[in-house]
Design goal:
Elements: H1 7-14, H2 19-23, H3 31-39, E1 42-48, E2 54-60, E3 67-70, E4 73-78, H4 86-93, E5 96-102, E6 109-119, H5 122-126, E7 137-149, H6 152-157, H7 174-181, H8 191-200
Antiparallel strand pairs: 1-2, 1-5, 3-4, 4-7, 5-6, 6-7
C-alpha cells in the first residue's frame, strides 16, 4: 500500500472525468438550482479557518429558508445556536464557502460554492424571518459555481429509506455522551428533555 502524493498519480489511478461531469458546472443558479433550493429544508455549510482546518455544520429550517436574491446571490440565515460561531468566524479569514443542499426523497444533491460575507442589514434580516423572529445575521453568498451531484452516494446509503432508520433509543442521548466526554460534568439530560428544550429555543 503506497501513499499517493500528487494529482498525476491520482489521475493515473482514476482516469479523467467525463465530459458531461465537467460541462454541468454552472457559474450561476439556473431555474433548476433555484427550484431545488426552494424545496430544500437542509443544507450543509462548509468553511475553512485561518488554521487551514475545515468546519462543516448542518443548517435546517422550512423548505426555502435560504433566500435566492438573484442568480448569483443567496441569503443563509443564522438561527439560534451554541454561539461557537465557528463557520461565521472563519469567513473573516477565508470567505470561500461550500453549500450542499438536500431534499428528502431526492437522491441527487446540489453543490454551490462561492464567497460569503456576514451582514445584519435590517432589510436582509427581514427576508429571513421565521416564527416571527429575524436571525441575528445572514450569510450573503456570492455564487461562483453550482452543479448537481449524482445520486450514487444517497442510493448507496439508502438515506431516505424508512427501513434504514435506527431506533433512537438504541444510541445514547447527547446528554449522556457529553457527561462521558466532559470531565466533572455530572449533568445527564435525557433525549426527551433535550428535545423539549430545543423546541423552546429553535428561534
Amino acid at each position: 500500500m503506497a501513499r499517493i502524493s500528487d494529482e498525476a498519480s491520482l489521475r493515473a489511478l482514476y482516469g479523467q472525468p467525463g465530459e458531461r461531469s465537467l460541462k454541468k458546472q454552472l457559474d450561476r443558479l439556473d431555474v433548476h438550482c433555484r427550484n431545488f433550493i426552494a424545496l430544500s429544508p437542509f443544507v450543509v455549510l462548509s468553511t475553512t479557518g485561518g488554521d487551514g482546518l475545515p468546519d462543516i455544520t448542518p443548517r435546517g429550517d422550512a423548505p426555502g429558508f435560504i433566500a435566492v436574491l438573484d442568480d448569483k446571490t443567496l441569503l443563509l440565515p443564522d438561527r439560534l445556536g451554541n454561539n461557537r460561531l465557528d463557520n461565521l468566524a472563519n469567513v473573516f479569514a477565508n470567505p470561500g464557502v461550500g453549500l450542499l443542499f438536500l431534499v428528502p426523497g431526492i437522491d441527487e444533491t446540489l453543490r454551490v460554492h462561492g464567497t460569503a460575507e456576514i451582514r445584519d442589514d435590517a432589510e436582509l434580516l427581514a427576508r429571513c424571518v421565521a416564527d416571527g423572529k429575524p436571525p441575528k445575521t445572514v450569510l450573503v453568498v456570492t455564487v461562483v459555481e453550482a452543479y448537481y451531484q449524482c445520486a450514487k452516494a444517497l442510493m448507496r446509503s439508502h438515506l431516505w429509506d424508512p427501513a434504514t432508520r435506527i431506533d433512537r433509543a438504541s444510541f445514547p442521548s447527547l446528554g449522556q455522551i457529553l457527561k462521558d466526554q466532559i470531565a466533572g460534568n455530572t449533568l445527564c439530560e435525557t433525549q426527551e428533555e433535550m428535545v423539549e428544550r430545543y423546541r423552546e429555543t429553535l428561534y
